[in-house]
Amino acid sequence: MAAFRDLISFSDIDLPCWESLYSLCRDIIARPGDYADACRGKLLASLFFEASTRTRFSFQAAMLRLGGSLFGFSNPNDTSIAKGESLADTIRMTASYADAIVMRSPQEGAARAASLYSEVPVINAGDGGHHHPTQTLADLTTIAMTRGSIGGVTVGLCGDLKYGRTVHPLVTALSMFPDVKFRLISPDELKMPDYVMDFIRARGIAYTECASIREAISSLDILYMTRVQRERFPENFPSGAVDKLLSRFTLTADDLRGAKRELMVLHPLPRVGEVERAVDRDPRAKYFEQARYGMYIRMALLLKLTALPREARYPEREGGHSCPNPACITATEKYLPRLVTAEGNCGYCDRKLSG
Ligand code: NCD
To answer: Are 51 and 75 in contact (CB under 8 A)?
Structure first.
């Protein structure tokens, strides 16, 4: 049985949890027929408040391959949310029909908020620019399946490290393994958020900042590319300045000449030019395999979480939370209870609450 109920950020998962999910995943890959009915009679609610191709299809494919079923939406305008229904009510109602909820939202902390009101496990399929832990499961699975183990690697994280939600839980996840070093490759305007840097420093994880792929490539075992998340830029963001720099953060086939033979190039996809198409022909490009592994590890996750018993949930006290981040779920869902992390940050979006 999994030792976690909700998967909101990667801190919900420890090493034994990961190992048990990964071992189940490997068994599913080896003997898919044995799992064809493993979720028969189970129902997954799939609530996508924000666009998605891979993650939504991946969860659908995962549930269907387990013999389970799904209901949900990919356009919230077709639901009572368009009438002004609160997230808490939408979740309470949905949880009463389903065995687990997978949700994606443009608002940071939305999945955490949902988990406070849900009788069934909530899986975060992306909350604004904050987290995307099931993509991290796909990333770890790809690394482990390709290299045989995860520790002892130098990992380049490249592109939009500020708004790219996949790299934030990836840092937490990789910190569970020994001797992992980071090279942070991004324009100044798109550097890692403070709370991730605070985590890296507090854990004493080795890192350096690099101004281009060229500067870092020869040292890397893994290069994790990301798309610039223009849809998350605030109105006053200097996007013109970022555009001028982007060629330094675009991976070309030529860049790979200076890379290790066993380098792995990962990307959560979709890409919009930051990985040249010519790179696809290089065997070090693993991003399409990564998408396939994502489906298998989501099967393992769904199998574990849909087996958990229902648990009545409702916050004891509502209201009283105030967060300065306009993208935080608490900016619109004002009734949410006060939630503060051990570091004194917002318990929904991790933004500093004071100062
Ligand atoms: C990512 C996402 O939605 O955060 N895609 C995905 O889930 N595979 C990355 C992105 O949109 O750039």
So the answer is: no
